Amino acid sequence: xxxxxxxxxxxxxxxxxxxxxxxxxxxxxxxxxxxxxxxxxxxxxxxxxxxxxxxxxxxxxxxxxxxxxxxxxxxxxxxxxxxxxxxxxxxxxxxxxxxxxxxxxxxxxxxxxxxxxxxxxxxxxxxxxxxxxxxxxxxxxxxxxxxxxxxxxxxxxxxxxxxxxxxxxxxxxxxxxxxxxxxxxxxxxxxxxxxxxxxxxxxxxxxxxxxxxxxxxxxxxxxxxxxxxxxxxxxxxxxxxxxxxxxxxxxxxxxxxxxxxxxxxxxxxxxxxxxxxxxxxxxxxxxxxxxxxxxxxxxxxxxxxxxxxxxxxxxxxxxxxxxxxxxxxxxxxxxxxxxxxxxxxxxxxxxxxxxxxxxxxxxxxxxxxxxxxxxxxxxxxxxxxxxxxxxxxxxxxxxxxxxxxxxxxxxxxxxxxxxxxxxxxxx
Length: 427
Ligand SMILES: *Cc1c(COP(=O)(O)O)cnc(C)c1O
Known about the structure:
Layout: H1 2-8, H2 19-30, H3 52-64, H4 75-92, E1 99-103, H5 106-124, H6 129-132, E2 141-145, H7 150-158, E3 166-169, H8 179-187, E4 194-199, H9 211-220, E5 224-228, E6 253-257, E7 269-273, H10 276-283, H11 311-345, E8 350-352, E9 360-365, H12 369-382, E10 388-392, E11 395-401, H13 409-425
Helix pairs in contact: 3-11, 4-11, 5-7, 5-10, 8-9, 11-13, 12-13
This protein binds pyridoxal-5'-phosphate.
Pyridoxal-5'-phosphate binds at residues 46, 105-107, 149, 151, 199, 201, 203, 228, 230-231, 257, 269.
């Protein structure tokens, strides 16, 4: 960090510099601090790579400098968002009437979906949250799986639903909501507004909550179902993984990322809602200088006002891959994850902890936390590839995520070789 600060820093110069020299300086100063997440060999977190057409479209978005807040500011951005809304709902198997907000990522998309949910379940209970806020509102419960993503807690906090609003539903060995516990929690709350927050694509195991059962149960009690599907929602784009998200179309709102499995450059996420009126009511704004044309105003569907025209890069990714290309990309990542798991499992010192249903692999070395962490550190230090660790059910594991279209057979060999080398040299 110090070297980077030195290279980039110093006092702000009084005089400006030649633009070309500035860019050359920036490239040179930043280079040692760049992380190569998009060249096929990065398996940490859940990091998508970048499709060439999508990258070029993102450059256009910058060069055109379009503000996607209002139709009047960029009819092209508004139309592209509308086209992507339709394409994505079709591809992911969501109702074709969903509304969509194009935002920074699943974090904000979770805020949007849960804000629409808060609006609707409180309205159903006779409370106008947009006028009254939460002071004096009926108590609201959010039923959410024990293995939810941390961004759900933050989204709820932003929405004034503190951690005491959360009712944690136990998860099974794969990390999925146990529906018998959900049924009990719903039955115990028939008189209060309830939001059920499910997940497709557990950030450790890749497991997907049983959406059909969850939606049936929740809707029987009048609850709203929000789905965090940052990467798992893309299982719906392939015939071979679609069964994992069976029933997801019956939910009320969904959050996903384009910068993960769709391989769009950072940042890009999408919120979908089956109830456009609730979505809009939770997000819209009005101002005297805003002449509404009836055409799509992007700011009605996200918490941002001025906003980057992210849909161009989404459009280019979808257009360059087509339906079959997206399915192939999902299938290839899953096959590569299975291959990594098989190769590692063949070593007597390595144990695979999860059922590799999607693109996530959890591996443990020698049944030992320290040894597992040591292997991750050795792989990171060696530098041919990168993966991290996680702690699940009190046990440390290597966490390997395959989310980059650029990952090929050779890259799969590189990561398994690096792990196995570290397993045997660090011992
Ligand atoms: C990555 C992820 C998020 C957060 O997404 P961002 O793109 O970082 O905003 C939320 N939920 C799940 C399941 C994720 O994998």
